[in-house]
Amino acid sequence: MIKRKHVKHEEIRVSITFKTACCMVLIMADLLICCPDCFTTDVSLNGTRPRDNGRVQAYICNDTACRKKRGKKTGRQFTVLTSGEIAKLVDREIEEMIDALYRRGAKAKTVAAQHGVSDAFVSLLRSAVDKTIARGVKRDKLVSHKTRDRAVSIDETFFKIDGETLYVIIVRGYKSSKVLAVNVSTSRAEEDMRKAFDEAQANSSKRIEVITADAHEATRAMARHLGHPVTLIVHPHKKPYDKAIIERIEYDGDVRIETLIGVSTDIFEKQKKREYHVRQVTKPVNPPAPKPRGRPKGSKNKAKVKAKGKTGKIKPKKRGRPSIFEVFKSGRKGYVKVKPKKQQLVFRMGTITSVMKGMQDAFELFSGKTIQNNHSETGNNTIRAVVNLGGLRSKEKLSGRIRSVERMRNDPALQPNKKIKGRHRANVYFRRMAGADFKADYSNCSIEVKAKA
Hints:
The chain is 29% helix and 28% strand. The two termini are 34 Å apart. A hairpin with a 2-residue loop joins strand 3 (43-51) and strand 4. Among the domains are: 12-135 and 417-451, no CATH class; 238-285 and 324-372, no CATH class. Helix 2 (84-103) crosses helix 4 and helix 2 crosses helix 11. By secondary structure, it is α+β, with helices and mostly antiparallel strands. The protein contains 11 helices and 16 strands. It has helices at 64-70, 84-103, 108-115, 119-134, 190-202, 217-224, 327-330, 353-366, 374-386, 395-410, 423-434, and strands at 12-19, 25-32, 43-51, 54-61, 77-79, 151-161, 164-173, 179-185, 210-213, 230-234, 243-252, 255-264, 272-284, 332-339, 344-347, 445-451. The strands form 3 sheets. It has a 10-stranded mixed sheet with strand order 8-7-6-9-10-11-12-13-14-15, sandwiched between helices. A 3-stranded antiparallel sheet has the order 2-1-16, with no helix packed on it. The protein is elongated. The longest helix has 20 residues, at 84-103.
């Protein structure tokens, strides 16, 4: 049996005229008819389809590769209003709506009014985006490909659901400016910070060695227990904002060496000789078990022994953890020449290597700027503006919603599910072009078909 030779058809172009309720006319001239799946112009007439106000011309795709891709015996059938050119225009409108919702933090009602769609359609769009992310190949991944971040910022924001405070711990990379980890928890303990850090490390191809954070003690405790050298830059989020701490954590066998460097927040802003304070503490990696609390047995009547060579009363030991700014009082002074334009730090002879490494890590991030943690603060404000919990409110839903938002912000090319189709698809574009008076049905348009000679 001889197979019939495939004949490629000529291009088909149409002109569409729409009339709105206020008698305004919208004309789309010389619109190319192509397949909405493969965008080929090898299409032919395929009868008509019934509509509310009469029948409309239908078309069929003749490309065999398109059939194989779809796994069908026949080509894709479509009409003018669902053709490839219209689909491109609608996709462009949907991209603009997604950009407004997920990246610029616009409200749903504002987006609906600007694009001439209903609030229900915006809700449908959000649902489609969330489901696309949930069904992705890399489930729960915040980035499509691993980044090359070695410096991250850690910060928290919070939401309240039925009187319960839920903390959202966010880790953002400095090099990629992408959110690498999100952890929603009822507390801000060291374990919660570590969970977020581990996810960020899994999303980066380089080892994270520099962390910026506010003065939250759990982040500092997490950094000390990572098991590898790290520089922690702590910028307090309470007044005064003029001091910062650079903490360099290193290891020598079973001993952890903590080098605290107290600096002013504007130390790297201008070329100048600047002062800093440094204090170094060594602690065992595996400390012994703490002694039981309370007074030892038999010590009630023992006389207090004064230290040898000292007179007067013995000062009681100050209780509680030392202040983060204690290094400015007990640390020794040091000096460094800062040259932001030349990207140089000049230290004195005999400066500790840990001080040089910690200062250099901070200088790479804040050269010519003040030390701050606003790298995460701006993102947190956007999340609070964009994330809108409706219906059933829970910790799991909040986590999923935040991940959907950050996944969209990390990957601008991510598109929602293509199930937004049918009469809604063309309506998204035509309402924007014709205005709010455009009717929802297609009976108010006349189509003139022009075959290319």
